[in-house]
Amino acid sequence: MGSIGAPEILVVALIALLLFGAGRIADIGKGLGQGIKNFKQGIKEANEDDDEKSEAKAEKSERKKTASKDDEKSKKKREADEEADAEA
Prior knowledge:
By secondary structure, this protein is mostly helical. It has helices spanning 6-20, 22-87. Helix 1 crosses helix 2 (22-87).
C-alpha cells in the first residue's frame, strides 16, 4: 500500500477517456473551469460588498459624531445666551 503514482493516474485517465470520449472530457473540464471562475468572482464581489457596507457604516458613525458635537456647541451657546438674558 502506497501512494498513487504516475502509472496509476495514467491508467485512470485512459479508462475515463474510453468511457466518456475526448469531447465529453473536454466539456467536463470546461464546465469545471467556468465553475471555479464564477466561484472566485462571487467571492470577490462579496468582499467588495462587505467593504462598501463597512465604509458606509463608518461614514454614518462619523456623521453622528459630528452632529452630536454640533448639538453640544449649540446647547452651550443657548445656555450662555440664557444666562446673558437672565443677567440683563
